[in-house]
């Protein structure tokens, strides 16, 4: 889907979970646990970055979709790609992620217990053998109140009765918006009774103020 004048960045942080590694639970003390987590994260979760800036339709935007300021210095004045045209197969490389750590979310006032670090592969193994998929676009649409309530109740009922995890694209648009509202309303009304697991995984390019998440060391 890559076009030279593509308006939205296509470089995203991607999970690169090695299937060869066994599922593990970290039982180390907190300082060593964080170091082990940081090391594992850098080895297994990567991001893609452009290593050759070539202006597209706009002077300050590269053909990869990112602005000039989002490129490293070596990409702006590359010595290895002189007189070349931008190519996503040659000029995009994988490097260890630099966006990871702890984030504190506020708003619901729920109590939190002592955090436990789990490898992502272990989390996947905890999921049910068969996954149910609810697919929809990111385009906003209107739902009448009755249909909206039916959708919310049905989604929560399925999650509670089957123990299924709700995993969405993490956006406040389209179907994902209604999924998020259903989970939020359930969390506010049910307190600690009948909890469900909901995870939103948003692509890197869609996150507002994502620069605040970038840090070379875990924190």
UniProtKB/TrEMBL annotation:
Residues 133-217 form the TRPM SLOG domain. Pfam families: LSDAT_euk. GO terms for molecular function: ligand-gated calcium channel activity. It comes from the Eukaryota. GO terms for cellular component: plasma membrane. Transmembrane segments: none annotated. Coiled coil: none annotated. PANTHER family: TRANSIENT RECEPTOR POTENTIAL CATION CHANNEL SUBFAMILY M MEMBER 2 (PTHR13800:SF2), TRANSIENT RECEPTOR POTENTIAL CATION CHANNEL, SUBFAMILY M, MEMBER 6 (PTHR13800). This is Transient receptor potential cation channel, subfamily M, member 2. It comes from Sander lucioperca.
């Amino acid at each position: 889907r890559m076009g030279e004048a593509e308006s939205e960045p296509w470089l995203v942080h991607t999970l690169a979970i090695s299937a060869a590694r066994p599922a593990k639970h970290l039982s180390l003390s907190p300082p060593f646990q964080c170091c082990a987590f940081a090391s594992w994260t850098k080895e297994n979760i990567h991001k893609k970055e452009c290593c050759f800036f070539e202006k597209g339709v706009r002077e300050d935007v590269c053909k990869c979709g990112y602005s000039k300021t989002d490129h490293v210095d070596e990409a702006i004045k590359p010595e290895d790609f002189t007189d070349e045209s931008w190519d996503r197969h040659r000029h995009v490389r994988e490097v260890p992620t630099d966006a990871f750590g702890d984030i504190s979310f506020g708003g619901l006032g729920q109590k939190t217990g002592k955090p436990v670090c789990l490898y992502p592969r272990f989390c996947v193994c905890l999921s049910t053998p068969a996954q149910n998929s609810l697919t929809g676009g990111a385009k906003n649409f209107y739902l009448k109140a009755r249909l909206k309530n039916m959708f919310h109740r049905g989604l929560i009922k399925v999650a509670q009765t089957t123990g299924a995890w709700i995993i969405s694209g993490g956006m406040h648009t389209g179907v994902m918006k209604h999924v998020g509202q259903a989970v939020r309303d359930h969390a506010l009304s049910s307190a600690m009774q009948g909890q469900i697991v909901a995870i939103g995984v948003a692509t890197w390019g869609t996150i507002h103020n994502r620069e605040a998440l970038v840090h070379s060391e875990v924190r």
